[in-house]
Specification:
Blueprint (H helix, E strand, L loop, with lengths): L2 H9 L9 H31 L8 H42 L5
């Protein structure tokens, strides 16, 4: 093993958690699921307040989406972001595991 490879193998991990790709995958995927569930909850809470005759408070980004597609559009954006986070977690996990399975280079 050359000096460059030793340096890389010593410094490529930032902590004990970065050596376990499954942990990172599950945490990131859980965040994606949380975003999806938050979007669904946000949709039902906004429609309930609106149906009751109240006013719904939304932030700037939600207001932009609402102006194009309404409450359903806001929920769809949250679901798309959540799915994107889950896909990112899967791709990152696959990249880390395929790098671990490669034989060391001489």
């Amino acid at each position: 093993m050359s000096n460059d490879n030793k340096f890389i193998s010593r410094n490529m991990y930032t902590g004990s958690g970065s050596r376990k790709p499954k942990t990172g995958f599950f945490i990131t995927a859980a965040c994606g699921i949380f975003v999806i569930l938050f979007g669904i909850w946000r949709y039902f809470s906004m429609t309930a307040v609106y149906d009751a005759g109240g006013t719904v408070s939304v932030n700037r980004l939600e207001n932009l989406v609402y102006s194009f597609s309404g409450f359903l559009g806001i929920a769809i954006v949250y679901v798309i972001v959540g799915i994107g986070i889950i896909i990112y977690a899967y791709i990152d996990y696959k990249n880390k595991t395929t790098l671990d399975n490669q034989p060391p280079q001489q």
